[in-house]
Amino acid sequence: MKQLRIISVVGARPNFMKIAPFAHELALHPDRFEHILVHTGQHYDKAMSEQFFETLNIPRPDVDLGIGSGSHAEQVGRTMIAFEKVLQERKPDWVVVVGDVNATCACSITAAKERVKVAHIEAGLRSFDMTMPEEINRLVTDRLSDLLLTPDEISDANLLREGTPAAKIKRVGNIMIDTLDRNRVAAGRLDLKTVLSANNIGSADPASALNGFAVLTLHRPSNVDDGHKLKTLVSLFLELSRELPLVWTLHPRTRKQLEVSGLWKSVSESGRIILVQPLDYLEMLKLNMEAKAVITDSGGLQEESCVLGTPCITMRDNTERPVTLLENGGTSQLTGSVPDKIRHAFNRALSVQRKPFRPPLWDGHTAARIVDILSAQ
Ligand code: UD1
């Protein structure tokens, strides 16, 4: 059998937990695959990138494009220019992209133009919200992909409705759950107090969270970039934290916005909101396993909360991951950024038991299915 040369791409934090199981699975079959890992460098801080390579034991990238921060056009444009050279030098059989970040879109366009086949892990997700840059990235990537590896039936239906040939669609399950299953024992062993103390960047005492807490994460420009809106949300979080302490893990964008909007002091000095720097994968998993609720605008956390059974208050008007919603058996509830809806969902979350839910094929074996499919191409 001919050895396939595969270039896989990571760029930003949510990509790392998706590529780890794929890289490990490819490494089990050196006779069948040569794997070249490319990091575009969209996320570059130790806390946003490097620590995930260490914790998840991802091989060092073979190529680092060093793209860094910038506008969307700058990130996508610089990535395409740099990735084109990589493709011309390395001549892979396949480019494998994951998720929906700018790196995903930039590298799939470049590969399609170089006539290299593209496989997309996490294909078919749709929020139907064209104001989200991720939705544009998903649509472009899926349209250009030769192999669409989907997490669930709803994603298959989205692709079929768009006219994607059925033969290109393979339902493989959710690769992030491979990572979750592989790491939950190690996460469970971490000591909560140590995690909070080691990452605390505010002035609240982490010990206040040891009798119960909710986790808060926000990073979408639609929630954090408008100072007025952020101020309203911060008032609400201060109110909720009087009922139950909040552990707020701060994305760099959100931290900056709290500082420039003059909100940092009131949050930090409230004593009930514990501000922590971006956590490593195991630390975040530990918090999710212990939290009474998660309040978030992230995509991946909706999925992890669903499998762990943590009530998830999703501060968005829509989701590309409807399989995780309460009405479909999951734990996620959409509230947008409407204070009354968030308050209501928060109170509900505090009154219910953890209820884990695994959609079909979210079984920890997604990477193995993907590698089998690639082998057969
Ligand atoms: C990106 C993804 C988003 C994903 C998120 C997870 C796109 C379109 N968006 O958004 O889907 O949910 O990552 O984090 O690709 N910064 C640092 N250090 C870093 C990286 C970024 O300080 O290592 C700061 C920079 O000031 C930057 C800002 O964070 O301007 C935002 O980073 P960016 O890569 O533009 O997108 P995210 O908002 O992180």
- The H/E string reads EHEHEHEHEHEHEHHEHHEHHEHEHEEHH
Q: Please mark out the parts with pLDDT under 50 across 5 or more consecutive residues, or reply none.
A: none
Class derived from helix and strand content = alpha/beta
Bound molecules: uridine-diphosphate-N-acetylglucosamine
**Share in helix:** 40-55%
Helix count, per DSSP? 16
Main sheet: strand order: 3-2-1-4-5-6-7
Major pleated sheet: 7 strands, parallel
Strand element count: 13
- As a whole number of angstroms, the C-alpha radius of gyration is 20 Å
Whole-number mean pLDDT: 97
End-to-end distance, in Å? Answer: 11 Å
Which band does the percent of strand residues land in?
15-25%
Shape assignment: globular
Describe, in plain words, how this protein is organized in 3D.
The chain has 377 residues and is of the alpha/beta class. Helices cover 47% and strands 15% of the residues. It has 16 helices and 13 strands. The chain has helices at residues 13-27, 46-55, 72-90, 102-113, 133-144, 153-161, 175-189, 192-199, 221-224, 227-243, 252-260, 264-268, 281-290, 300-308, 339-351, 366-375; strands spanning 4-10, 33-39, 63-64, 94-98, 117-121, 147-150, 169-171, 214-218, 246-250, 273-276, 293-296, 312-314, 332-334. 50% of the residues are buried. The model has no long low-confidence stretch (mean pLDDT 97). Bound molecules: uridine-diphosphate-N-acetylglucosamine. Uridine-diphosphate-N-acetylglucosamine (UD1) binds at residues 12-14, 42-45, 48-49, 69, 100-102, 133-134, 219, 251-253.
